[in-house]
Structure formats: structure tokens, C-alpha cells
């Protein structure tokens, strides 16, 4: 039997709601829901039902009630951050032991880890019904509806400077501007390298292949061959697109272009992802670009999107037209791959017909602001100001090209990240991580 992660989370955080003595199970569950939402009504369930959730885990019904109550991750983070240092140590030790974690949770990232775990549980519960109805119910079938990324350290690597929307897009969309911590030039890549290293195997291992059967050195060897194949020139961009999509938007990898599989094949996009949002499932194509010039990076990634198969008539590509069925059959077998394709059929009202795009753009940081003759905090603030200007430039440029290509009906999830020297630094980072 697998680990009941909600059960573990409740037990781990239970001491934070205690006053003089241990609180009942149902009250411990209510405390989680109270702090994960704006206005949870304890009368939503009877005592026995709260206990059932504790022992059985979340389900689609409680997820609906959580969303109706207004999920607020910041409130949940604050709930955990108010714990004493000794409580935090106890919580992270308990989580590490019960969840059998290989990587240590730092005190600084504990709140984020708990929020991320709760968010994963919510997302998994959303899919329980659709998995049972539309996909064969073997124990391993839920694998395509779970995160593969190892993102506990994400908050220690990046700071989100700002987030906005692209005006031209009429569907759900978001554009995020991030910066590497500690926001000082030249940027430090130590933590970024650690995050990428922890995800090389996650990125390269195909769905349906046991990750425990693949060691990091095997994934690195695969990626070295892939980098020499002449297909990609921005492997780090592809890895970061994968990390940001799974972490930031819960867009779950279906397959990527470089994977450990039984057969060799070429994929015309950098990754295919599934995202569940507001009752709809979207198929997202990954794309990335690393250039020293932000404008060039955006133009080049747009060219990639425009040359996807079945998209050369400047019309949006249908989701079912871009999925490589042979890859799904290799990963999941014929019956399950057919069930996944059926899930994407236009007759399914909860699946969007038109494919969407997840884009990572790395570029060289430039500014006319003086970052030298000032204090450290002033330099950080000026750095963030410059990145805000980059975000505005990217929105203006994307508005124009999206209208030009008639892509307004799709969704776009865009992530911007400046480097000291995007092209040179990213090549050096991957050389350091996987060799040549």
C-alpha cells in the first residue's frame, strides 16, 4: 500500500494547532483546511467524514469545497512559518522519515514544501474521478497525473519579480518574470545547478519507466548524446521549461523530446504537458529559447511555435493532432494510450480542443541603472526594476506576434529569466553538469 501523504501531512502539522493537549483527528484536518483556504466552514462535513479524509486521503468532493472556500497558499505558508524552530525541526524530520525523502528539507523551505505537498494532493484528487472513468484503473495509471519534478528547493533558487497576463490572449494565461537569488550581478548559478542536477533524471525518464531503474549518470549520458545530435541548442532551456511548467502551473509532463525509452524517435516539440485548471484539461506544448537579446529570444521561440506540425497555416493546432501516439503506446501500452487519446477527444467537454503553449525565455540582463554605486539592497531593487521593464517589453512583443499568428484562442504560460550572459553561461552550466 502506498504512503497516505495527506495522513502524514496532518500528523506533521497537528502540533501547530494544539494548545495544552493533543487535538482530535477531525480538528487537525479542519485546521489544515482552515489555513489552506480563506473561509472554510467546519460544518461542511460531519466528524466521521473528517476522519475518513484523514485515513483515506482527499477526494474530488473536498477539493471542490476547498476551491469554493478560496484556496490561499500564502495563508498556509504563514501558518507553518509561525512555528517555533524546534517545531519546524520536528516537522521536517517527521516528513522526511514518513515520506521516505532522499533530499533533506531545509528549515527555510519547509513552508513551501508543505504548501507544494498540499497542492499536489489537491491536483491528484481532481483527477481521481477522470482516471477511473476514462483510463484503466491499474495502480500505476495515476502516474501521468502526478508531478515528476523535484522542486522542494525552487524557492531557494528563484524569486518571482512580477507576474501579469498577455492582453491579446483570450484564454487563461500568465507571464512570470523571475530572477536568480540573491539578485546581484554577476548572478550566482550554484543553486540553479543543484536544482537542475536533481531533475535531470526526472526530465529524461519516460512515463511508464521506473525512475529507480535509472541512475543520474545514465540520464546524463542520454542528454550528452541528445545535445550532440544537432536538435537542441538550448538544453538548459528545455530543462527549465519542464521545471517551471510542472512547479509553477502544475502542467504535468506527458513526454519530453529527450527520454529514456525502448525506442529512438524524434519529437517536434520540446515537451507535451497536461494541465488541469478551472475544470478544464489543457494540452500544452513546451518551447524554450536562450539568447543574449530578449527581443531575439522571443522572436526565435515564436518561430519554433509557428513550425509545429499542423500549425503552418497560421491557425491554432488541435490538441489531438500533435500527440505522437506511437510514443504513448511505447510508454503505456495500446489500451491505455488509446484511453489517453480518447480523453483528449473534442467530444469531451472538459478537454480544450486547441493546444496551448508553455514557454521559457532566458536572456542577457541589461540595464542603464547604476548597480555599483549603491548599497546591496538598492542594487537588488534596481535589478528588479530592470526585470519589470523586461516583462513589459515581452508583453508588448507577444501581444503583436500572437495577434499576427491568430493565436488568441490558446493559452500561454511564459517564464522569463535573465542571465549574466545567457548563451555563454547556459552552455557552461550544462557542460559542467553533463560533460561534453
Describe this structure in words.
- With 436 residues, the chain is an alpha/beta fold.
- It contains 18 helices and seven strands.
- The protein has a seven-stranded mixed sheet with strand order 1-2-7-6-5-4-3, sandwiched between helices.
- A hairpin with a 2-residue loop joins β4 and β5.
- α13 packs parallel to α17.
- The longest helix is centred in the last third of the chain and has 29 residues.
The major beta sheet can be summarized as: 7 strands, mixed
Give, in order, the helices and strands. HHHHHHHHEEHHHHEEEHHHHEHEH
Q: Give the overall silhouette.
A: globular
Low-confidence stretches: 129-142, 262-266, 309-315
Separation, N- and C-terminal Cα atoms:
42 Å
The total count of helices amounts to: 18
Radius of gyration: 22 Å
Mean pLDDT: 79
Strand order of the largest sheet: 1-2-7-6-5-4-3
Q: How much helix, percentage-wise, in residues?
A: 40-55%
Number of strands: 7
Q: Structural class from helices and strands?
A: alpha/beta
Strand content: 5-15%
Features:
7-stranded mixed beta sheet, 436 residues, single chain, 7 strands, alpha/beta, 18 helices
Structure in a nutshell:
The chain has 436 residues and is α/β, with parallel strands linked by helices.
Task: Give the SSE map.
Elements: H1 5-13, H2 25-36, H3 47-56, H4 60-68, H5 73-81, H6 85-98, H7 110-134, H8 154-157, E1 158-164, E2 174-180, H9 190-197, H10 200-204, H11 216-228, H12 235-249, E3 251-256, E4 271-277, E5 280-291, H13 294-306, H14 319-322, H15 325-332, H16 334-343, E6 356-364, H17 376-404, E7 412-419, H18 422-434
Parallel strand pairs: 2-7, 5-6, 6-7
Antiparallel strand pairs: 1-2, 3-4, 4-5
Helix pairs in contact: 1-6, 2-3, 5-7, 13-17, 15-16
Amino acid at each position: 500500500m502506498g504512503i497516505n501523504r495527506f495522513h502524514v501531512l496532518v500528523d506533521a502539522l497537528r502540533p501547530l494547532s494544539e494548545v495544552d493537549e493533543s487535538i482530535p483527528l477531525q480538528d487537525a484536518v479542519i485546521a489544515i483546511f482552515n489555513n489552506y483556504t480563506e473561509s472554510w466552514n467546519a460544518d461542511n462535513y460531519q466528524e466521521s467524514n473528517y476522519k475518513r479524509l484523514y485515513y483515506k486521503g482527499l477526494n474530488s468532493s473536498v477539493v471542490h469545497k476547498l476551491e469554493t472556500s478560496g484556496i490561499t497558499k500564502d495563508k498556509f505558508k504563514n501558518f507553518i512559518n509561525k512555528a517555533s524552530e524546534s517545531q519546524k525541526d520536528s516537522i521536517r524530520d517527521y516528513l522526511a522519515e514518513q515520506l521516505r525523502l532522499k533530499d533533506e528539507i531545509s528549515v527555510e523551505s519547509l513552508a513551501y514544501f508543505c504548501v507544494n505537498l498540499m497542492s499536489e494532493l489537491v491536483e491528484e484528487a481532481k483527477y481521481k474521478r477522470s482516471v477511473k472513468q476514462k483510463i484503466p484503473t491499474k495502480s500505476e495509471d495515476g502516474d501521468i497525473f502526478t508531478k515528476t519534478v523535484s522542486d522542494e528547493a525552487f524557492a531557494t533558487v528563484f524569486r518571482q519579480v512580477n507576474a501579469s497576463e498577455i492582453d491579446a490572449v483570450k484564454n487563461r494565461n500568465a507571464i512570470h518574470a523571475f530572477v536568480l537569488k540573491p539578485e546581484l550581478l554577476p548572478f550566482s548559478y550554484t543553486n540553479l545547478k543543484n536544482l537542475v542536477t536533481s531533475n535531470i533524471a526526472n526530465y529524461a525518464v519516460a512515463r511508464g519507466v521506473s525512475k529507480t531503474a535509472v541512475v543520474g549518470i545514465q540520464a546524463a549520458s542520454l542528454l550528452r548524446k541528445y545535445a550532440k545530435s544537432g536538435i537542441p541548442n538550448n538544453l538548459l532551456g528545455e530543462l527549465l521549461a519542464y521545471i517551471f511548467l510542472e512547479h509553477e502551473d502544475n502542467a504535468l509532463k506527458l513526454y519530453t523530446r529527450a527520454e529514456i525509452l525502448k525506442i529512438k524517435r524524434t519529437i517536434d516539440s520540446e515537451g507535451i504537458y497536461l494541465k488541469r485548471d478551472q475544470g478544464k484539461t489543457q494540452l500544452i506544448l513546451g518551447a524554450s529559447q536562450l539568447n543574449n537579446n530578449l527581443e531575439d529570444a522571443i522572436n526565435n521561440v515564436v518561430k519554433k511555435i509557428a513550425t509545429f506540425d499542423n500549425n503552418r497555416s497560421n491557425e491554432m493546432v488541435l490538441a489531438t493532432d500533435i500527440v505522437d501516439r506511437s510514443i504513448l503506446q511505447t510508454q503505456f501500452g495500446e489500451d491505455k494510450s488509446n484511453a489517453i487519446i480518447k480523453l483528449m477527444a473534442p467530444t469531451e467537454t472538459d478537454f480544450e480542443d486547441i493546444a496551448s503553449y508553455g514557454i521559457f525565455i532566458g536572456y542577457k540582463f541589461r540595464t542603464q541603472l547604476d548597480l555599483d554605486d549603491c548599497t546591496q539592497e538598492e542594487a537588488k531593487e534596481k535589478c528588479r526594476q530592470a526585470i519589470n521593464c523586461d516583462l513589459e517589453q515581452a508583453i508588448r512583443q507577444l501581444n503583436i506576434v500572437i495577434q499576427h499568428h491568430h493565436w488568441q484562442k490558446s493559452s500561454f504560460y511564459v517564464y522569463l529569466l535573465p542571465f549574466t550572459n545567457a548563451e555563454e553561461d547556459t552552455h557552461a552550466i550544462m557542460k559542467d553538469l553533463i560533460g561534453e
